[in-house]
Design goal:
InterPro entries: Amidohydro_3, Metal-dep_hydrolase_composite, Metal_Hydrolase, Metallo-hydrolase_Enzymes. Helices cover 36% and strands 18% of the residues. Helix 2 packs parallel to helix 3, helix 5 packs across helix 6 and helix 6 runs parallel beside helix 7.
Length: 395
């Protein structure tokens, strides 16, 4: 962080000068670029009131989301909940979001067109990207892969998948890497969302990227089991990840909620991957919200500052803070391939302004009085009322 005087003219950043160089400053405070969320699930958002997770476990979440999707996820339902989530994120100061979309059966023809409509509606406010989400085992179904590929290609999306240690993992990874290369697509995987140290699909993905000499961007989320492996395995895996140019996004709040949950026992693991070690090896690392008020995470509001505040505590981003704020701004923007998440002369005056003057002030309060500036103008930061979802959720 640097002490500067920031000047805005005609909706753009006109100057970044040393602090005190420009007379008539409004006040001292902290200025962030708008936030960038690299890993979310907008299609699942806010279903908690009608489909909860009784035991708080990963498999409980998986089962209950499946039941809710099969019963309720019409175009109107998905659109209403995604729109609500985007309004929350926008009010908190986010300008770009990548969302995973459940891409299974009839849902492929429902959620992708809804996403395309919302991307157009929100253009200029929030830049949206989407990733196809399905099980790695489904890659063996050629018809499924063909249908998903068509949807991703038609909607300028990203190929994805949930990876875990199945016998056909390498074979199915090879299929996805070939499909992505043939269609000019990037890849974004859910990886090793478990405390089992024998879960090593991250290493298999890095080896596949090297094997195929993949030129696109590969992003991996979660990677929880990496923190449970021995030092030699960790060193070798991180080396392969770095050599492959893979980016890693951790979801600290959701992982903390789900991982190592056993009824009647205090969790022993934080469920967060090795961000410091990955970053030190030259890997691009980010943190993001993941799920919002659904069976995978009962809380959250797509507030990237909350993500950064909790990540700072959970993963020790402090002493010193260094450039860790880039994990919710410039780094995820770079992974997404967009011009966002940084302050530069001539760039759009898209800012999040805080009264806080330092780290402990910033991270000790929710900063609900923040000012969000887009194109040089402050926006309405009033959050939508949950009551608006009652008609959708049956409240």
């Amino acid at each position: 962080m640097a002490r500067i005087s920031l000047t805005v003219e005609n909706g753009r950043i006109a100057a970044l000068a040393p602090a005190g160089a420009v007379p008539g400053a409004l006040r001292a405070g902290m200025a962030f670029p708008t936030f960038v969320e690299l890993h979310t699930h907008l299609d699942k958002g806010h279903i908690w009131p009608r489909r909860r997770n009784p035991d708080g476990t990963f498999f409980g979440a998986l089962d209950n989301v499946t039941l809710d999707r099969e019963a309720h996820w019409s175009a109107a339902d998905v659109a209403a909940r995604m729109e609500f989530s985007l309004r929350c994120a926008y009010a908190h100061g986010t300008s770009a979001i990548r969302t995973h979309l459940d891409s299974i059966g009839k849902q492929i023809g429902i959620s992708w067109p809804v996403f395309a409509e919302l991307r157009e509606t929100w253009a200029g406010r929030i830049e949206l990207q989407a990733v196809a989400l399905f099980s790695i085992e489904q890659v063996s179904d050629r018809a499924h892969v063909s249908e998903v590929t068509a949807a991703v290609r038609d909607h300028d999306g990203i190929m994805g998948g949930v990876t875990y240690m199945v016998p056909e993992l390498d074979q199915n990874l090879d299929t996805l890497f070939r499909v992505a290369a043939d269609n000019g697509l990037d890849l974004d995987f859910h990886v090793d969302e478990t405390q089992d140290p024998t879960s090593r699909s991250l290493r298999h993905i890095a080896e596949a990227a090297q094997r195929h000499r993949f030129a696109g961007q590969v992003t991996v989320g979660h990677c929880c089991s990496l923190a449970r492996q021995d030092e030699e395995e960790i060193k070798e895996t991180i080396g392969k990840v770095a050599a492959s140019g893979i980016a890693v996004v951790s979801l600290p709040m959701c992982n903390l909620y789900l991982q190592d949950r056993v009824s009647g026992r205090t969790p022993r693991s934080r469920g967060v991957t090795l961000l410091h070690e990955l970053k030190a090896a030259g890997v691009k690392v980010a943190v993001s919200s993941d799920n919002t008020r659904d069976p995978f995470y009962a809380y959250g509001d797509l507030d990237a500052l909350e993500v950064f505040r909790e990540a700072s505590r959970i993963a020790h981003f402090d002493h010193p803070f260094g450039d860790w704020p880039m994990a919710v701004t410039a780094t995820p923007a770079s992974v997404m391939g967009i011009d966002a998440g940084r302050l530069r002369v001539g760039g759009a005056a898209d800012l999040v302004l805080f009264r806080a003057r330092g780290w402990t002030e910033l991270l000790s309060r929710p900063q609900s009085d923040r000012m969000v500036v887009r194109g040089g103008q402050s926006i309405d930061t009033a959050l939508p009322d949950y009551e608006e979802l009652d008609g959708v959720l049956g409240g």
